[in-house]
Amino acid sequence: MITRVRNELTRYLRIETVGGALLLVAAAIALIWVNSPWGASYQTMVDTHLSISALHLDLTLADWTKDGLLAIFFFVAGLELKREFVVGELADPKRAALPIIAAVGGVVTPAVIAIVVGHGVPGMDKGWAIPVATDIAFALAVLAMTGSRIPASARVFLLSLAVVDDLLAIVLIAVLFTASLSMLWLGVAIACCAAWALAQRQRLHTPLFYIPVALVCWYALHEAGIHPTLAGVALGLSTRVRKDPGEKIAPATHLEHVVQPISAGVCVPLFALFASGVPLDGAVFGSLFTDRLSLAIILGLLLGKTIGIFGISWLAIRFGVAKRPAGLEYRDMFALSVLGAIGFTVSLLVAELALADVGDDAIDLAKAAVLVTSMAASLLGSALLLRRGRVHQARRDADELQPDSEA
């Protein structure tokens, strides 16, 4: 009975809408909690320290979710990246061209807008990176809920775009937030990745090897001064994605099948719970649409993502550099570009990293800007997708009736 319940639960957590819903519920709980009469208890929970003295680790619970649990989320992202580039849509250069170009436009344009709007604002030397990332789980959940009637190529385009987008965001995190580097610990982390890749090459399957290697890799990157979530990406990219003859499933597919429910059901919601607790007092609301920091994030996400993704995609198709996905029209692509402005998980992470030296007020303001913009993008994108879905459904209905009318 327990096994059946567990299997049903993990199957349920693999559904994109469920992961997105849990993320939203966790964020809503955090917002309600911190703005309730019991808000002090939320802050106490966030600031509670959990230490591992033997490893000289002393992190708050919020830091553990940001540095530890998100490593699992990034591991799943790394597996998706590897699969897409080796055997997925991005393996074909012609198919990969459009989402890759769109992802670059969706990173560069928000960054430029944020730099221009927020020029001279404290923290914007790195804060321009806050609006560059699209939240895969949230965006795909919205698409699954409201875009079921548009062609299936929409999901392929959005997933491929978000995967490349995440890769670029990961590179930015590695470059921007590595203050000091310990070459010794970096060497240990590289050795762990090499050991993981070698074990994959030798067809080793036991978790008794992989789990300790993953933990050591995470700790080594932490000690090296590099954000430890990158351990998840590195190990995901080191995992084999092609199955051997006679092998039922490739290791990357198996690991994604096992780990993704943990990421979607535990890691991302807990991160959202600890990261989304923004006091929505008069000061935050009063500054949200006047402060240049929040305006840089809002305009960078909502305008930058939409214009960057759709604009460069239109140009690439117009000049023959890439082909439009089968069945999708430009209006469909515009709706998907709006979903690209949902910058939840990674944007919240970058906000904490980029503004750590500026102060809690700046972090809260940046988080509020991310939350408000992500909700606006999800609502606007949903409305556009529902409208486009009705158009596609009407065409399908007309096509089905056509033979009868001819008869």
UniProtKB/TrEMBL annotation:
Keywords: Antiport, Cell membrane, Ion transport, Membrane, Sodium, Sodium transport, Transmembrane, Transmembrane helix, Transport. InterPro entries: Na/H_antiporter_dom_sf, NhaA. The chain crosses the membrane at residues 12-34, 54-76, 97-121, 127-144, 156-177, 183-199, 258-275, 295-321, 333-356, 368-386. It is found in: Cell inner membrane; Cell membrane. It comes from the Bacteria. It is a multi-pass membrane protein. It catalyses: Na(+)(in) + 2 H(+)(out) = Na(+)(out) + 2 H(+)(in). PANTHER family: NA(+)_H(+) ANTIPORTER NHAA, SODIUM ION/PROTON ANTIPORTER NHAA-RELATED. Belongs to the NhaA Na(+)/H(+) (TC 2.A.33) antiporter family. Na(+)/H(+) antiporter that extrudes sodium in exchange for external protons. This is Na(+)/H(+) antiporter NhaA. It comes from Nocardia rhizosphaerihabitans.
